[in-house]
From TrEMBL:
Organism the protein comes from: Salipiger mucosus DSM 16094
Name listed for the protein in its UniProt record: Aspartyl/glutamyl-tRNA(Asn/Gln) amidotransferase subunit C
Alphabetical keyword list: ATP-binding, Ligase, Nucleotide-binding, Protein biosynthesis, Transferase
Reaction equations catalysed: L-glutamyl-tRNA(Gln) + L-glutamine + ATP + H2O = L-glutaminyl-tRNA(Gln) + L-glutamate + ADP + phosphate + H(+); L-aspartyl-tRNA(Asn) + L-glutamine + ATP + H2O = L-asparaginyl-tRNA(Asn) + L-glutamate + ADP + phosphate + 2 H(+)
Gene: gatC
Any one GO MF annotation of this record: asparaginyl-tRNA synthase (glutamine-hydrolyzing) activity
Function: Allows the formation of correctly charged Asn-tRNA(Asn) or Gln-tRNA(Gln) through the transamidation of misacylated Asp-tRNA(Asn) or Glu-tRNA(Gln) in organisms which lack either or both of asparaginyl-tRNA or glutaminyl-tRNA synthetases. The reaction takes place in the presence of glutamine and ATP through an activated phospho-Asp-tRNA(Asn) or phospho-Glu-tRNA(Gln).
Length: 95
């Protein structure tokens, strides 16, 4: 697929990217290359291929889902600029 400089200028405008007039032919050529590659990908037969998350089969690391007390509120609140009654104190934003 071939993209002309007018279309490249329109895409740049929609993307709110300022492109100098001299750079438009090169941008149009890059867009054309990208669209050609996408067309090539559409020709690949993926029938029966399962979707994958990674190129190597792997199991995501998981931790056990256990409810705990945390056990360290004093350590956590020691970093707060303002803490009151065991909570972070923040400025009021809604009147």
């Amino acid at each position: 697929m071939s993209i002309d400089t007018e279309t490249a200028a329109r895409v740049a405008k929609l993307a709110r990217i300022r492109v100098e007039e001299d750079d438009l032919p090169a941008l149009a050529q890059e867009f054309s290359k990208i669209l050609d590659f996408i067309e090539q990908l559409g020709e690949v037969d993926v029938e029966g291929v399962e979707p994958m998350v990674s190129v190597t089969p792997m199991q995501l690391k998981r931790r056990s889902d256990e409810v705990t007390e945390g056990g360290m509120p004093d350590r956590i609140l020691s970093n707060a600029p303002d803490a009151r009654e065991g909570f972070f104190a923040v400025p009021k934003v809604v009147e």
